[in-house]
Amino acid sequence: MSRIAILPSAVADQIAAGEVVERPASVVKELVENALDAGAASIDVVVEAGGRALVRVSDDGSGMSRDDAVLALARHATSKIRSADDLVGVRSFGFRGEALPAICSVSHLDIETATADGEGTRVSAAGGAVQEVRDAARRRGTTVSVARLFYNAPAREKFMRSVRSEWRGISDAVVTAALVRRDVRFTLLHDGRPALALPSAPSLRSRVAAIFGARYADGLVEVDDVAGAVRVCGLVERPADVGTASRRVFVIVNGRAVRDVGVVRAAEAAYRSTLPSGVRPSLFLDLTVPADEVDVNVHPAKAEVRFRDRWTIERAVERAVRRALGTPDSAADVGRAWQRSVLTLDAPAPFGDGAERTALRVDAPVADGLFAQNDGLTATAALATAVEPEEEIVVPPLLQLRRTYLLFERDDGVVLIDQHSAHERVLYEQFMGALERGESPSQRLLFPLTLHLGPAHGDAFDEHRDLFARLGFEIEGFGGHTLLVHSVPTPHPRFDAERCLRETLDTLTGDRHAGVHARHERLAATVACKAAIKAGDALSPEEMRALFVALARTTLPAHDVHGRSTIVQLGWDEIDRRFGRK
Ligand SMILES: Nc1ncnc2c1ncn2[C@@H]1O[C@H](COP(=O)(O)OP(=O)(O)O)[C@@H](O)[C@H]1O
Ligand SMILES: [Mg+2]
């Protein structure tokens, strides 16, 4: 007797069920997607006991004829594609014709459906077998009820998690669908209690507001950028807010929610130099790419896609997010969010090459260097190199507060700049430029500085010797670990080169394994931090103006290099509200 046998189709369906229907949340996902594919404008989801007792999804979509309602339960029965060619650029969520038979094989399943008001069919099935088909009048649309999920699949049932965790999966599934299809109305009920009630929304931001709260939504920065054939839209968290609420990541590609580590990493890369390492932002990304650039049929639950040219997509994502973070909208707010630009940046500066720099308006002449000259070290405008003459910047009257903050007024509110953080951002970008592209201006000392280093500092210096030279430190080794410093960078007149060098070496000690770019970033951030003006330094009016201009010319003016804000805004709206004027 042969040992190999073709499995009866009920068993085959149960095996397939394991792929498509892992848990109640997958049932919800499949049924909601079917409702969307049927053109529903309104979808109601009811679940009981974390979906194990009942999942019911009702829609006002096209409905099914009696024949179709029965056929829908057969394997590979789909109305959505007819041939393999249709898979290219397929727009519907479903196309494999697997979900309903798979779910049906492990539950009691009921379909009530009508293609016009007042007609209708009811199909009842259990364990994959249709038990009854009869007339049942209803309004146009479909209601699919799935009861006693996995009642006949004890192996599956064992893997079910707690009601709580199944419920979390279900609400995630509905939230995901609601983020993808903002135009559709959704409700979700758990054990009789309303959990979500979402009217159709005009934008991603208003949908996010309806789900997670208006305050949260208002705090997100808008992303909207086109690179070649790729459009990247969405909302991302302000660096200053990252870590203050739970992290949420949603990626939509051509109207389909997907998991994609590469896209998420690319977006996170855009935050570099604004966040401490290990802290990760919330992201809501909505990508549109040409249909033939992406294969959606690589995953049974269609949760992943394959890009033909992943690199281009990821680069577009990183660029789009970086641009969003370059806008002053991404600065932290005091009180309620208000969406206004702070430094009149007409277009955010691109990162990478500085080819298409930002255009800025002017109505006041700008001081030549960052800082006025005084004392022994002539401060040749350290920033002169970064300045492009065609760029002009409006400098408002500035007031220094507590020798720490610069305050200025705008049409829509007041803005505070943290002078240390701001200068740090300026120097960081300048030093990165020097490390990656060329030399930094430096100042020759009249009398060289002699430094005696301990062995650890000595090693750290040897390790980073070239990089220090590129930053503008001309240093000669002088036997053992004695260094003679001939030239230093000139970030400002009060710059203490010796202290900066020692503190930097301190931070770099043992920092040996990072890649080249990461090392540059680390060194630039460290030197910038040590070299920047401090809180408590009094600034002259010219210095304040120069700092303002230099900050406006950075790619990320609103964020310092540690994930804090350089700029904090307080809108007149909020001020008026606090004074009871509104
Ligand atoms: N809510 C619904 N409204 C209208 N038709 C539906 C609905 N749910 C399922 N169908 C029909 O049943 C078919 C089978 O559904 P399914 O097993 O999920 O496969 P797929 O979605 O991959 O086509 C669909 O192609 C569709 O024609
Ligand atoms: Mg389907």
Strand percent estimate: 15-25%
Low-confidence stretches: 335-390
For the sheet with most strands, the description reads: 8 strands, mixed
Strand order of the largest sheet: 5-4-3-6-2-1-7-8
Bound molecules: adenosine-5'-diphosphate, magnesium ion
Q: From the helix content, strand content and strand pairing, which structural class follows?
A: alpha+beta
What can you tell me about this protein's structure?
The protein is of the alpha+beta class. It has 16 helices and 23 strands. The chain has helices at about 10-20, 25-35, 65-70, 100-105, 155-160, 165-180, 205-210, 215-220, 260-270, 310-325, 420-435, 455-470, 495-510, 515-530, 540-550, 570-580; strands at about 40-50, 55-60, 110-115, 120-125, 130-135, 140-145, 185-190, 195-200, 220-225, 230-235, 250-255, 255-260, 285-290, 295, 305, 330-335, 400, 405-410, 415-420, 440-450, 475, 480-490, 565-570. The strands form 5 sheets. An 8-stranded mixed beta sheet has the order 5-4-3-6-2-1-7-8. It has a 5-stranded mixed beta sheet with strand order 9-10-13-11-12, sandwiched between helices. Strands 16-23-19-18-17 form a 5-stranded mixed beta sheet. A hairpin with a 4-residue loop joins strand 21 (about 475) and strand 22 (about 480-490). The protein is elongated, with a radius of gyration of 30 Å. It starts with 8 loop residues before the first helix and ends with a helix. Residues about 335-390 have low confidence and may be disordered. Bound molecules: adenosine-5'-diphosphate and magnesium ion. Adenosine-5'-diphosphate binds next to helix 2 and helix 4.
